[in-house]
Amino acid sequence: MAVIKLSRKAWNNLLIFSMLIMIFVFNGLHHKLGGNSEPEGPQPLLPEQSYILALEYPGVRIERIGSGWRIQGMPEADAENANVAELATRIQAWQSMQAEIGAQINAEPLLVATLSLAGETQPWVFVLYKDAQQYQLFDKHQQRWLRLTQAQAQRLFLHLKG
C-alpha cells in the first residue's frame, strides 16, 4: 500500500477545502430538511404591535389626533356621517385583519390604501384587485398577495361597492 506524503501546506489546504465542502453540504441539507418556508394559514396584514398613525384612500385621509381620529378630504355630508367610532372601527379592522395567502391575478386595481405606521419610514401600500371569483390584496411592502372575502374588503376600504 502506498502512503501519500503531503507537505504541511498541502494538508492545510486539504483541511480548508474539506471544511468548505462540509459547510456547503450541511447548508444544503438544512434547506432541504427545513421544508416549505411559505407561511401557512391566515396571515396578519400588519405587524402584530403596529400602531397606525394615518390611513389614506384616494382623496381621503384619516389621521390620529391624540386618542381620536380626524377625517379630511370627504364631502361635508359624508364626513359628518363618519363618526369617530366608525373611523376607529375601520382602523381596528386594518390592525386585526388576517387573510390567507393568495395569488396574483390579472385584473385592474380597484382601490389603494396607504397606511403610515409609527416607527416606519415608508408607508405601507395595499392595492385591492378583483376578478370574477374573489378579491386579492397586494401588499407592496412585503411583496405578497392575500385573498380577501367581500366582507373583509368592505371592512378595509371606504366606498367599496359589492
Question: Briefly, what is this?
Answer:
33% of the residues lie in helices and 30% in strands. The protein has 162 residues and is an alpha+beta fold. The protein folds into 2 domains: 7-37; 43-156, no CATH class.
Q: How many individual helices?
A: 4
Number of domains: 2
Number of strands: 9
User: Low-confidence segments, ≥5 residues, pLDDT <50?
Assistant: none
Overall pLDDT metric: 84
Oligomeric state of shown chains: single chain
Q: Beta-sheet strand percentage? A: 25-35%
What does this 3D model show about the protein?
The structure is a single chain. The protein is α+β, with helices and mostly antiparallel strands and 162 residues long. It has 2 domains: 7-37; 43-156, no CATH class. The chain is 33% helix and 30% strand. It is built from 4 helices and 9 strands, in the order αββββααβββββα. The protein has helices at residues 8-34, 76-81, 84-96, 150-156; strands at 43-44, 52-57, 60-65, 68-72, 98-101, 109-117, 124-130, 135-139, 144-148. The chain has a 9-stranded antiparallel beta sheet. Strand 7 (124-130) and strand 8 (135-139) form a beta hairpin. The longest helix is centred in the first third of the chain and has 27 residues, at 8-34. The radius of gyration is 26 Å and the shape is elongated. The model has no long low-confidence stretch (mean pLDDT 84).
List keywords for this structure.
4 helices; 2 domains; 9 strands; nine-stranded antiparallel beta sheet; 162 residues
Write the layout of secondary structure elements.
Blueprint: H1 8-34, E1 43-44, E2 52-57, E3 60-65, E4 68-72, H2 76-81, H3 84-96, E5 98-101, E6 109-117, E7 124-130, E8 135-139, E9 144-148, H4 150-156
